[in-house]
Amino acid sequence: MTKRAYNFNAGPAALPLEVLQQGQEEFINFADSGMSIMEMSHRSAIYEEVHNEAQSLLRELLGIPDSYKVLLLQGGASTQFAMVPMNLLPAGKVGAYVMTGSWAEKAIKEAQLFGETAVAASSETDKFNRIPDLSTIQIPANAAYLHVTSNETIEGTQYKAFPETGDLTLIGDMSSDIMSRPVNVSQFGMIYAGAQKNLGPSGVTIVIAREDLVAASPKSVPTMLRYDTHVKNNSLYNTPPSFSVYLAGLMLKWVKGKGGVAAIEQINRDKTKLIYDRIDQSGGFYRGFADPSSRSDMNITFRIHTEELEKRFVQESEHHGFVGLKGHRSVGGLRASTYNAVPVESCRALAEFMSDFQKRNG
Ligand SMILES: *Cc1c(COP(=O)(O)O)cnc(C)c1O
């Protein structure tokens, strides 16, 4: 049996062992072609099948309506921060953003380079420890869209429901929780996500968009940054990240094998409950950062009362085979990322380690 770490990395993150093993089996000779998937033309029938299958699995698992396009792009979610306003924020209109934390801030900052923006709601005064009450969201009359970050990876908060925006386009950065729970795609005009947290390795970025939004981009937008370029060419305008698309496809099949996203959601909840219960039952030794109403099922953020103990926690956890438990440098503390591929055994081991560490240091 291969030795595997208890991997709680925030991204790139754990992949299922079965997926890695299948990738290994097919690595040198894919589909009897005498070469790896990385060595063949992206115009070949074999690659095209891999490409189309990844798209159709996304459609099937997320229940994406036929009136939506599924794009496989590059540049990460960070490139989407710019592509969204370049393509969808015309002069005279306002890009409205809900400020929930570090990633929402990056998204609005990028939009400010291209047009007028507005903060529709913010939890900054609470240090971004929660998702703002949806009833406080104020959308300017001339808004082009409302942008939300479904899961704040660094602060460890997550929307439990999304704002109802009627005819106004709702755009969601779902980089750190896509495919972790069912989502009503038709509530959104666009959803985007880098793959490396919940969908596969880094290198491919998923965009799910209502057809009419991506049919025609403004003339001045460069070819590679236009949604319509990728729509017209089935995301094969230029060389795609073929190996990443292939591995994401394997991961999607793995999700399907687990029973789909509803089943995965239950598994994820059971996993995070093990760790949140440890925090809540520690008598204050561990303190959750996120307000319980906004707790993420993907990134569990918590603190111990001294930085010294936090440091010791990380050091000792590493000796016990845990990886990635240090909080993001911008907020400090501790963080366990429990994406789809993190097995329940890792979470159980972490809960036990937390109890043990408290006994020794409480
Ligand atoms: C990681 C992350 C990003 C950035 O993704 P890249 O693919 O590295 O550009 C953006 N938004 C959220 C919510 C993230 O978790």
From TrEMBL:
The free-text cofactor remark is: Binds 1 pyridoxal phosphate per subunit.
- The protein's name is Phosphoserine aminotransferase
- Statement: the UniProt record of this protein carries the keyword Amino-acid biosynthesis: yes
- Specify one Pfam family: Aminotran_5
HAMAP family assigned = SerC_aminotrans_5
The residues that the entry says bind L-glutamate are R43
List the catalysed reactions.
Answer: O-phospho-L-serine + 2-oxoglutarate = 3-phosphooxypyruvate + L-glutamate; 4-(phosphooxy)-L-threonine + 2-oxoglutarate = (R)-3-hydroxy-2-oxo-4-phosphooxybutanoate + L-glutamate
- Name the cofactor(s): pyridoxal 5'-phosphate
- Which molecular function terms from Gene Ontology are attached? O-phospho-L-serine:2-oxoglutarate aminotransferase activity
UniProt lists the family membership as follows: Belongs to the class-V pyridoxal-phosphate-dependent aminotransferase family. SerC subfamily.
Keyword annotations from UniProtKB, A to Z: Amino-acid biosynthesis, Aminotransferase, Cytoplasm, Pyridoxal phosphate, Serine biosynthesis, Transferase
Summarizing the function annotation, the protein's role is: Catalyzes the reversible conversion of 3-phosphohydroxypyruvate to phosphoserine and of 3-hydroxy-2-oxo-4-phosphonooxybutanoate to phosphohydroxythreonine.
Q: Which residues bind pyridoxal 5'-phosphate?
A: A77, S78, W103, T153, D173, Q196, N238, T239
- Gene name of the record: serC
- Pathway(s) annotated for this protein in UniProt: Amino-acid biosynthesis; L-serine biosynthesis; L-serine from 3-phospho-D-glycerate: step 2/3
Give the top-rank taxon of the lineage listed in the UniProt record for this protein.
Bacteria
Instruction: Tell me what organism the protein belongs to.
Output: Paenibacillus sepulcri
Q: Chief localization class?
A: cytoplasm
Cellular location(s):
Cytoplasm
The UniProt entry, under SUPFAM superfamilies, shows: PLP-dependent transferases (SSF53383)
